[in-house]
Design a protein that fits this description.
The complex is a heterodimer of chains A (628) and B (834). The longest helix of chain A has 36 residues. Helices cover 50% and strands 11% of the residues of chain A. The two termini of chain A are 47 Å apart. Chain A has 27 helices and 14 strands. Among the domains of chain A are: 129 residues, Sec1/Munc18 (SM) protein, domain 1 (Rossmann fold); 102 residues, Sec1/Munc18 (SM) protein, domain 3a (Syntaxin Binding Protein 1, Chain A, domain 2); 105 residues, Sec1/Munc18 (SM) protein, domain 3b (Serine Threonine Protein Phosphatase 5, Tetratricopeptide repeat, Alpha Horseshoe). In chain A, helix 7 crosses helix 8 and helix 15 packs across helix 16. By secondary structure, chain B is α+β, with helices and mostly antiparallel strands. In chain B, 46% of the residues lie in helices and 20% in strands. In chain B, the strands form 7 sheets. Chain B has a 5-stranded antiparallel β-sheet, with no helix packed on it. Chain B has a 4-stranded antiparallel β-sheet with strand order 3-4-5-6, with no helix packed on it. Chain B has a 4-stranded antiparallel β-sheet with strand order 7-8-9-10, with no helix packed on it. Classes of the chains: A alpha/beta (628), B alpha+beta (834). Chain B: It is a peripheral membrane protein. Chain B: Belongs to the VPS16 family.
């Protein structure tokens, strides 16, 4: 809302009634400046004109850091996207800005070797970001061009997407770490944390859950120990690390909060969305979605059912503001034009965009089948009418509604039911393969590996067995046994967790989505996201005490560590209420909305750091192994 | 106190004083006679080689090393060849230059470090004379051989031998020579008697010092100053010529009235002094010859050795050691008799103050009137630094502290730091440590180097004390000392591995900056692998352990440590290493025990070495993964038969993995592929690679109903799926008759609402209506609504007396449907009543 808006906002703002004493967020634009300065420095290491090749998925992040003219200022001649094809550049200096991926390095080797074969001499420089891996250098060596290229690292770990969202822009983190068991990015996460710590720390308390979180924490501690200590005023007091595989349910649910919906439908890329003609009824436009967009900022966390009401109210306000012109004298008109009109125009433009987007969403989402989809999801979360849900999913597969959506429902079913009955497992899988091809056998193997879609063990379930064993032998052996079981197949204990943490409110109660009671509002009051609930509980208890049962169900690996400077943690109260939450493996916009809500309720400010922004589609797409 | 100037001797405008440093702790039977002596500058150690020319195996010469105060450090019989010259390097290592040109290097404790040779030809011609010299590049060695040729090594740590050009007319040894370092070049200045030559890399140039008349005689001794700036030449007529070493200016020429050449001639000069002098030593006489043409003469009773220092000359005899230096200016100012310098007055004032005399006030007033109190304090502080006697230091510092009380804005820093530094200096000057450093030398040397020297001499506790006292950050201070201590400790052969490891751990603990891997590397160097492994266990950063473990061939351990470190680069390094070191079987077995390393390697293989990946799964009997591998591979295969054979392999592996479901699915896929191929060949349908569903869709679209039917039966496609498919396909092709026939073929497994909806989707209300009657009662309202038949919907809803159905109809009503709305509302009300 513009400051100068002459009409008081009529829309009820219950969801926004922030506590007055909320602390200020630290300024993260520093991260951008640091990254830009380092990039400029690296470019200058290769003096003279050069062509720059940029890895496709680095284009958008790079754009947020340095625009084309900045690059041109530092003698970048032409810009190319890495396309794994022979190159057409004629420059005698080539600079490659890439992620440390073997595939890309191999391509660069091909480029260099092709030049060699034609007797062309060029200088090559590879800038790996955020770091280089030994494996990449090994490839250079193997391909015999290690001596021909210079390599560098651009420590661009963190991209601030918004005032309270920072992304590592590493979507492959999820698959590499959780599926392939490749821990190469753990250190990256540790370094990112270290960077934040050295700029905005020292952190006085770190909580976490998950194996990867623990390792990232340890990697960070190690880096802290190696570097020198500085004592300064902390801007961020507490940190919470969480693995994505602690909570798969939340990202698999359909998002119904505006920002999440926009991401689900239009795909927000690096804080920017492209609205097509169906929204703009003109040509496509790219829109930055962040707190700078005043209209968006007020609806991003709203349940979709509220958005239209808000937007129409807003439109009326705008009209009133325009109408003010009538009856103005020349002087007043002049002030109006110079001071207010531009703001109003801007607001007008944004408003019409979001109204267009909402209409487009409405068209897709208010249909019968979407309502039924939501109903099925809610039933799964509640654990009612499972048979009906299974038939719904079956029909979904048979009618080939959507490859990813079907998979999503299957996973949701498996997690909430602690695995599928063998008969269902087989028949649903067989039908899915018929629909989408047998290559999805590999996809299913991946999903099973992650524990996302599994078959129930015949006979007794693990939980029963465990509790029996637990009674028989002492705790230590039981712990070991539990470990052994959990390594067999990561089982989900959603039902038990849901009961213990009260994640699913009793159905039948009215839930006024305009006046959210709790974080469940982000899922229409049907489910409190597990990840956010854990954060709430741990912050409230200042640790995991009292949550032993819960952590046991989550396969342990929880920790809570007080920093070395625990003494002054009381003194700087403001920093204590700034909490950095790091999602290893990605985080959804719905979770961010939930945390914003929690922050407003409790007087915290949350900063979300994610390896990438994810949603159900991205999550599942990264696990596909079909080769279509 | 009053006698502080008693040992001052005037020379020109300057004063020279001799201060006793030590009563030597050694007990030399024959004094310094018949000895090769080398004493390192900056109060370094002293090496003695008695009777160096004894060669019989029965009585070998003895090499002895002492601290500057004469405390014996080590002593051992010299078993190598005859030694021509001893010398110390800048890092206090002893160089023993032998006749055959080989140079042996020992540390201060007499343990042999290494050796090098000054050239092959020297073995023949032998070294006649040798000199050790220091330059900015390090320590150098120069020799002159029996064939009258000079060879230079500027830096023994980066050995490059340079053989200098021949000197015309030189036979045997020159009468005297020195090494000069000028303009970043090292040269030799030599005299053959009447002639003086400069010898550099390429040429030999005759030179003549300015103002050096032919009557002066021939040069028999020469000396260059500590800084290489000044040169002194002694002629056979007893004249000492002094001038710049560039041979451009002359400073003075003094007649010593001595006809024999001195045994030693050394420059004695305080940095920045305008009054340098040369100290000459004969058997019974020590003479200081200043540039002012004046001399001081000291009688001598004993054989002595002169050691040139930065700011003076140390005189070592068999019984004591003295420092001869020009009295620093500030000390002159304060202690000169009847001095009225502010410092002198302040000292006096303080003295009176201690006597409780009111004169103190008078003196103070006098200083203050000239507003020189600050200067007075500064002088006292500075002078204290230059005084060797602790009582003098104290009285000067007390006076300074006294004076400071009357100043308001005087920075205490110089005072505090001087006090601290003097305390350190006094501690290292103690006889049992024996580093007689002057304040000037200390400043030049820096504290870091001093601590290094103490560490090198193994004065660990003192070094640690100093670090703590001066509050040096742990990284540069205590930790560094501990690191050296531990590295030294692991070399103690008489202690068990266990004992050493424990001792190291107790002392070092987790001091920041001490790397256990570094200590372990030292232990490994000394051949104590077990100890090294024990020590590595203390290393907190597992990343640091890995390289050493690899070096020690503990590859398994290295791998698990690398995995622990969480640093995948490190894991990968070890994996690559192992891959090259081990045979394939062992390599795979090793990986098998390390899942993290294995998955990393798998990731790499997926991108780089597909074949290896297969071997890896084979080795592990991982049939499931192997099968998945074959499935993946089949997609890369263009030709159908190779694709089928890969899929067959996958089927076999799935069977082995007891994954019947996947085996069956893969077999189905093979069947489907063959079927598709057949149809493609027959009808050019372009089906290959499509999913079952897509294939059926395509067949239906092509009107190949029979074939679609066949697939439906063969692949046991669920009825529902097939019905949906056929329904949609027929509707899309607008084959309404066919559709109606189909709907009647049997009872629809998907109900008839689907028919209504699909028809509506194709905008055919007429066809849609046909199916409304067949819809089950529960869905009837929906069906009517689907075809926008509000009346019909309302009828059914009212008939059902179902409130929610009525509401659904109502929600679709517009204002024009007045009567309908009323009807529904009435019905609703009556339902509600019941």
């Amino acid at each position: 809302m513009s400051e100068r808006c002459p009409v008081p906002l009529l829309w009820p703002r219950m969801a926004h009634s922030a506590r007055r004493d909320s602390p200020e967020l630290p300024d993260f634009s520093l991260l951008k400046r640091l990254a830009r300065d380092q990039l400029v420095y690296l470019l200058e290491q290769l003096p003279g004109k050069k062509d720059l090749f940029i890895e496709a998925d680095l284009m958008s992040p790079l754009d947020r850091i340095a625009n084309v003219s900045t690059l041109k200022e530092h003698e970048v001649d032409k810009l190319y996207k890495v396309e794994y094809k022979p190159i057409t550049s004629t420059s005698d200096q080539l600079c490659f800005l890439i992620r440390p991926r073997i595939k890309t390095v191999k391509w660069i080797c091909d480029v260099a070797n092709a030049d060699k074969a034609t007797g062309k001499f060029r200088r090559y420089k590879i800038i790996f970001t955020p770091q280089k891996f030994y494996a990449c250098e090994a490839v250079l060596e193997e391909q015999g061009i290690f001596g021909d290229v210079t390599t560098d690292e651009w420590a661009f770990y963190l991209l601030p997407l918004d005032d309270d969202i920072i992304s590592l822009e590493l979507p492959e983190f999820f698959r590499d770490n959780f599926l392939a068991g490749d821990q190469r990015w753990v250190r990256t996460a540790g370094s990112a944390l270290h960077l934040l710590h050295s700029l905005y720390g020292p952190f006085s308390k770190v909580y976490g859950i998950g194996r990867c979180s623990k390792m990232a924490y340890e990697s960070w501690r190690e880096q802290v120990a190696e570097g020198e200590q500085r004592t300064r005023q902390a801007e961020i007091g507490r940190v919470f690390l969480i693995d994505r595989d602690v909570d798969f349910v939340t990202p698999l649910c359909s998002q119904v909060v505006y920002e999440g919906l926009v991401d689900d439908i239009f795909r927000i890329k690096c804080g920017c969305v492209e609205f097509g003609p169906d929204v703009t009824s003109d040509k496509s436009v790219k829109v930055m979605l962040n707190s700078q967009d005043k209209v968006f900022n007020e609806i991003r966390n709203e349940h979709f059912s509220n958005v239209f009401g808000f937007l129409s109210q807003k439109a009326r306000n705008l009209q009133t503001a325009y109408d003010k012109r009538r009856g103005m004298d020349i002087k007043q008109m002049k002030t109006f034009v110079s001071e207010e009109l531009k703001g109003l125009k801007q607001e007008h433009r944004l408003l019409s965009l979001h109204i267009g987007a909402s209409e487009s969403i409405m068209k897709k989402k208010t249909k019968q089948d979407f309502q039924e989809l939501l109903k099925t999801e809610h039933s799964l979360l509640e654990g009612f009418e499972i048979r009906e849900c299974i038939s719904f999913i079956e029909e979904h597969i048979n009618r080939q509604v959507s490859m990813i959506q079907s998979l999503r429902l299957l996973c949701l079913l498996s997690i909430t039911e602690n695995g599928l009955m063998p008969k269902d497992y087989r028949s649903l899988k067989a039908q899915y393969l018929q629909s989408y091809g047998v290559d999805h056998l590999l996809t299913f193997a991946n999903l099973r590996h992650l524990g996302l879609l599994v078959e129930q063990q015949p006979g007794e379930t693990l939980t029963v067995m465990e509790s029996k064993v637990g009674k028989l032998v002492n705790d230590k052996t039981a712990g070991k046994l539990t470990d052994a079981f959990s390594s067999l197949a990561r089982k989900s204990n959603f039902r038990a967790l849901s009961r213990r943490l009260n994640l699913v409110p009793k159905s039948g109660e009215e839930y006024d989505l305009r006046v959210p009671r709790d974080m469940a509002y982000i899922f229409s009051g049907a489910y409190v996201p597990l990840s956010c609930k854990l954060i709430e509980q741990v912050l409230e208890r200042d640790g995991w005490t009292g949550l032993e049962e819960v952590t046991k169900l989550l396969n342990g690996n929880e920790f809570a560590v007080t920093g070395s400077n625990g003494a002054d943690s009381k003194a700087k109260n403001d920093a204590q209420r700034i909490i950095l939450v790091m999602f290893l493996g990605g985080c959804t916009f719905s979770e961010i909305s939930a945390l914003r809500f929690l922050g407003r309720e409790k007087g915290y400010k949350f900063i979300v750091v994610a390896t990438a922004i994810t949603n159900s589609s991205r999550l599942l797409e990264s696990l596909l192994d079909n080769h279509v | 106190m009053a006698f502080i100037t008693a040992n001052w001797n005037p020379l020109g405008e300057a004063f020279y004083r001799k201060t006793e440093l030590y009563e030597m702790c050694w007990n030399l039977r024959d004094g310094l006679r018949d000895c090769l002596v080398a004493a390192a500058p900056y109060g370094g150690p002293i090496a003695l080689l008695r009777e160096p020319h004894r060669r019989s195996p029965s009585s070998r010469p003895q090499l002895e090393i002492y601290s500057a105060s004469g405390v014996s450090i080590t002593s051992f019989p010299w078993k190598s060849g005859p030694v021509v010259q001893l010398g110390w390097t800048v890092s206090d290592e002893l160089l023993c230059i032998q006749e055959d040109g080989s140079v042996l290097i020992y540390d201060v404790f007499g343990s042999f470090k290494r050796h090098f040779s000054m050239g092959q030809e020297v073995v023949q011609s032998q070294v006649l004379e040798a000199k050790v010299f220091h330059s900015p590049y390090g320590t150098g060695v120069a020799i002159v051989t029996g064939s009258s040729r000079f060879t230079l090594a500027t830096n023994i740590d980066d050995l490059k031998l340079r053989r200098l050009p021949e000197v015309p007319g030189l036979r045997g040894r020159p009468s005297c020579w020195v090494v000069l370092t000028q303009d970043r070049q090292t040269k030799v200045l030599l005299s053959t008697g009447p002639e003086l030559y400069i010898l550099d890399n390429t040429s030999c140039t005759a030179v003549c010092p300015p103002g050096f008349g032919p009557q002066a005689g021939s040069i028999v001794h020469m000396s260059v100053s500590f800084s290489y700036k000044y040169l002194a030449l002694f002629t056979d007529t007893g004249h000492v010529w002094t001038g710049s070493s560039h041979l451009q200016d002359k400073l003075s020429e003094v007649d010593t009235k001595k006809s024999t050449p001195p045994k030693q001639m050394v420059w004695c000069r305080r940095p920045k002094s305008q009054q340098p002098s040369v100290v000459l030593m004969w058997d019974r006489l020590l003479m200081v010859a200043g540039v002012c043409n004046d001399t001081i003469q000291f009688p001598m009773e004993d054989q002595c050795v002169l050691v040139g220092e930065l700011d003076g000359v140390r005189i070592i005899s068999s019984t004591n050691q003295e420092l001869l230096q020009e009295v620093p200016l500030v000390c002159q100012d304060i202690f000169k008799i009847a001095s009225m310098a502010p410092g002198a007055l302040l000292l006096e004032a303080h003295r009176e103050y201690e006597k409780s005399s009111q004169k103190a006030d008078e003196y103070l007033r006098e200083i203050k009137e000239q507003s020189m109190l600050g200067e007075a304090v500064r002088q006292c502080v500075e002078a204290a630094g230059h005084e060797y006697d602790t009582n003098t230091q104290k009285s000067l510092l007390r006076a300074a502290s006294f004076g400071k009380c009357f100043l308001t804005d005087f920075s205490p820093d110089p005072f505090v730091s001087t006090c601290r530094e003097l305390r350190v200096l006094n501690a290292v000057r103690e006889s049992d440590v024996g580093l007689p450093l002057t304040y000037t030398q200390f400043k030049q040397m820096t504290l870091q180097v001093l601590i290094d020297r103490l560490v090198y001499r193994q004065f660990y506790p003192l070094a640690i004390e100093i670090c703590r006292y001066l509050k040096i950050p742990d990284y540069q201070g205590v930790s560094r000392v501990l690191k050296h201590w531990a590295s030294c400790k692991v070399q103690q052969k008489d202690l068990s591995d266990e004992a050493i490891a424990r001792a190291v751990c107790v002392k070092v603990g987790d001091s920041p900056g001490v790397s256990y891997s570094h200590i372990a590397a030292k232990a490994y160097e000394c051949g104590r692998t077990e100890l090294a492994i024990k020590l590595l266990d203390f290393e907190a950063r597992s990343g640091e352990q890995v390289p050493l473990l690899l070096k020690m061939k503990r590859s398994q351990l290295a791998l698990s440590k690398a995995v622990e470190s969480g640093d995948t680069d490190l894991v990968y390094t070890v994996v690559t290493y192992l891959k090259n070191e081990m045979n394939r079987g062992d390599f795979f077995m090793t990986l098998r025990n390390q899942p993290v390393a294995l998955s990393l390697y798998r990731q790499f293989c997926k991108l780089q070495e597909q074949e290896t990946l297969k071997d890896l799964y084979n080795q592990d009997d991982d049939h499931q993964e192997l099968a998945n591998y074959y499935v993946t591979a089949s997609y890369r295969e263009k030709r159908l038969d190779s694709r089928l054979s890969l899929l067959q392999s996958a089927v076999d592996e799935y069977n082995k993995a007891k994954n019947e479901f996947s085996a069956k699915a893969t077999e189905d896929e093979m069947r489907l592929l063959r079927f598709q191929r057949k149809l493609d060949d027959e009808k050019g349908a372009g089906l290959l690679g499509l999913s079952l569903q897509a294939t059926m869709e395509a067949l239906l679209a092509l009107g190949l109903h029979k074939q679609a039917e066949q697939l439906y039966r063969d692949f046991r496609v669920p009825d529902k799926r097939y019905w949906w498919l056929k329904l949609k396909s027929l509707a899309e092709k607008e084959e309404w008759e066919e559709l109606e026939k189909f709907s009647k073929s049997k009872k629809s497994p998907i109900g008839y609402l689907a028919f209504v909806e699909v028809c509506m989707k194709c905008n055919n209300k007429y066809e849609a209506k046909k199916y409304v009657s067949k819809v089950t009662p529960e869905q009837k309202v929906k069906a009517h609504l689907a075809i926008s038949d509000l009346e019909g919907a309302a009828d059914v809803a009212i008939e059902h007396k179902n409130e929610s159905e009525m509401a659904a109809v109502l929600s679709r009503c517009s204002a024009s449907d007045r009567s309908l709305i009323d009807r529904l509302n009435r019905a609703r009300a009556s339902v509600a009543k019941k």
